[in-house]
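stuck on this chain:
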Amino acid sequence: MVLDRLIMASPIRCLISAGPTREYFDPVRYVSNPSSGKMGYAIAAAAAKQGWTVELVSGPVMLACPEGVTRIPVVTGDEMYREVDARFDGCDILIMTAALIDFRPKTKVDHKVKKFELSMVIEMEQVVDVLATVSQRKTKQLVVGFAAETDNVEAYALRKLEGKNADFIVANQIGTTSGGFESDHNTVLVLGRDGSRWEMGPALKTAIAETLITQFAQILEDKSIRPASV
């Protein structure tokens, strides 16, 4: 009985990815995206405030690590995969907010390529799909993915929900005034594998993060609880 109480009192172990990744052509040139990491860092801060044990696998961003959060810095997609993969089995909830670059140059050289040596055609190869790969072996974990889209947001999010074996997808439309990359605000659509659908925003990313964590905490405690719109 005492052991049962101790197990129930153990904090939720939360694994979060955030920010962009970079894939290098040479030591000074790379492909990336404008992800600021603000949404992921806000979620990490909210999870820590909830009393969870939080590990944040972060691409290169200009943000301070939230209080009470353990940050694991990475740069490339392979590095992010290794760090998430190593921690996935021990977590209760994985929240993948990171905006990984899907492709990388097939060849990287160890010196700066001069302009006259540059080819205008660069052969690319696919980077490992972190969310789809680790979620294939989920057992008890609640898996939450993020989707940033420019159009057909709900349709693409539903496709990602199924293809990534996620429990929830949090989708938002980038390139709008309601939020997205680099903004402090966001508007999101959350789709669940159980058929649930709820919207949040426009609101500060910090407010959205706190609501998400509160609702995911309830879902972890009781799978029958459905989140409410804000």
